[in-house]
Amino acid sequence: MKPSYLTFFGFLHEPFGADIRIDQILQTPEVLAVSDRLEYTVRLGAIGLVTGDVGSGKSTALRWALSRLHPSEYRPLWITASSDAKSSSLPATANKDPCSSSMKPLF
User: Fold this and answer.
1) What is the pLDDT of residues 21-77, one digit of tens each?
2) Are 11 and 23 in contact (CB under 8 A)?
3) How many CB atoms lie within 10 A of CB 28?
4) Which distant-in-sequence residues (6+ apart) come within 8 Å of 80 by Cβ?
5) In this predicted structure, what is the pLDDT of residue 81?
6) What pTM did the predictor assign?
7) CA distances from 50 to 5, 15, 96 (A)
8) Local structure of residue 97 (DSSP, 8 states)
9) Of the candidates 52, 95, 98, 103, the residue with the CA atom closest to the CA atom of residue 74
């Protein structure tokens, strides 16, 4: 049985699930801003951090932004950090040097 809000709004599947496809992510100004900042961070070879309230779309925005990086050059890693009652996923990317089999951390 579907939860009542799915039926009420006519949703066929969970609209806020972590399994949403990249092409279904709404490109809001906030998502685009995260993407721009990630691209800038990658160009600099710097370290970036995305913060926000629980459920504000940090992971979704990062998934969309990371999908724009070329998969043969960048490989995302999701690192889960936890302390006490809090836990968070920290995305990391590695730049693959075409002349080497080793991965170079970007941030």
Assistant:
1) 899 888 999 999 999 999 998 899 888 888 888 788 888 899 999 999 888 888 777
2) no
3) 13
4) 87, 88, 89, 90
5) 60
6) 0.62
7) 30, 23, 23
8) P
9) 95
Cβ atoms 95, 104 nearer than 8 A: yes
CA distance readout (Å), 64 to 12, 24, 96: 22, 10, 20
| Distance in angstroms (rounded) separating the CA atoms of residues 9 and 91 | 33
Q: 57 and 31 in contact (C-beta within 8 Å)?
A: yes
Residue 31 · residue 60 · CB < 8 Å: yes
Amino acid, res. 94? A
Any idea which residue has 């579907």 for tokens? 2
- For residues 40 and 107, is the Cβ–Cβ distance under 8 A? no
77 DSSP β-pair partners: 92
SS3 per-residue string spanning 60-91: HHHHHHHHCCCCCCEEEEEEEEEECCEEEEEE
